[in-house]
From TrEMBL:
It comes from Sphaerisporangium dianthi. Belongs to the RNase HII family. It comes from the Bacteria. It catalyses: Endonucleolytic cleavage to 5'-phosphomonoester. It is an enzyme of class 3 (hydrolase). InterPro entries: RNase_HII, RNase_HII/HIII, RNase_HII/HIII_dom, RNaseH-like_sf, RNaseH_sf. A divalent metal cation binds at residues 37-38, 127. This is Ribonuclease HII. One of its GO terms (molecular function) is RNA-DNA hybrid ribonuclease activity. Keywords: Cytoplasm, Endonuclease, Hydrolase, Manganese, Metal-binding, Nuclease. Residues 31-218 form the RNase H type-2 domain.
Length: 231
């Protein structure tokens, strides 16, 4: 008779702190551990940015990027890059999102981000939803950027990277206010779309942008810049 021995499952309490998942996995020998998160999923303009991070040591003040001020995110971003074991960022442009679909691009971006870390992994923690085809066992963690340190680090890297890109786009297209809303749908962004039509960096497959194109708003931008033939 063959007896199979399985490791006793670990229970991670929500009050165990931001490093609870990492400590539990490390006790089972499942390290190094990568955290994966994205920024820009809900935006109607700009790229989708996915980051994967393997931390080398604990970082004071680490938290979900959405709970931090922009200045604090910048400080932690530099600290993560300086001290992490590995960091990789994948950027998917709006035209690829339009062509392939947001969810497919998100899954592919997460796979590429993990594969590009360049190190053997014991485990992968993903914010939100499962990602098949990763090179190590993985777990999708609900609100992972609030309960896992490596996912929080990935959220900061993705957010800061994307915010910088959107601020640069604001220099080229100041009429949209990208530096303020970062491509997300706000009242001001809607007004800018109605007045000027979409830029080449808008996602034409998204309802907010699609409706503007169909209404003919901002026709002065010109068919080429508005992405004629995309719809």
């Amino acid at each position: 008779m063959t007896i199979l021995f399985r490791p006793r499952p670990s229970v991670v309490r929500r009050d165990s702190g931001l490093y609870g998942y990492e400590r539990a996995l490390a006790r089972r020998g499942l390290s190094p551990i990568a955290g994966v998160d994205e920024a820009g999923r809900g935006a109607c303009a700009g790229p989708l940015v996915v980051a994967a991070v393997v931390l080398r040591s604990e970082i004071d003040g680490l938290a979900d990027s959405k709970l931090l001020t922009p200045a604090r995110r910048e400080v932690l971003h530099e600290r993560i890059l300086a001290t992490a074991h590995a960091v990789n960022v994948v950027v998917t442009p709006p035209d690829e999102i339009d062509a392939r679909g947001l969810h497919k691009c998100n899954i592919a971006g997460m796979r590429r981000a993990v594969a590009g870390l360049g190190c053997d992994l014991g485990y992968v923690l993903i914010d939100g939803f499962p990602v098949p085809g990763l090179p190590a066992p993985s777990l999708a963690v609900w609100k992972g950027d609030q309960v896992s340190a490596c996912v929080a680090a990935a959220s900061i890297v993705a957010k800061v990277t994307r915010d910088r890109m959107m601020t640069s786009l604001d220099d080229l297209y100041p009429q949209y206010g990208f530096a303020e809303h970062k491509g997300y749908v706000t009242a001001g962004h809607r007004r800018a779309l109605a007045a000027h039509g979409p830029s080449p960096h808008h996602r034409f497959s998204f309802v907010t942008v699609n409706s503007v194109v169909r209404s003919g708003a901002g026709a002065e931008i010109g068919d080429n810049e508005m992405g004629a033939g995309v719809l």
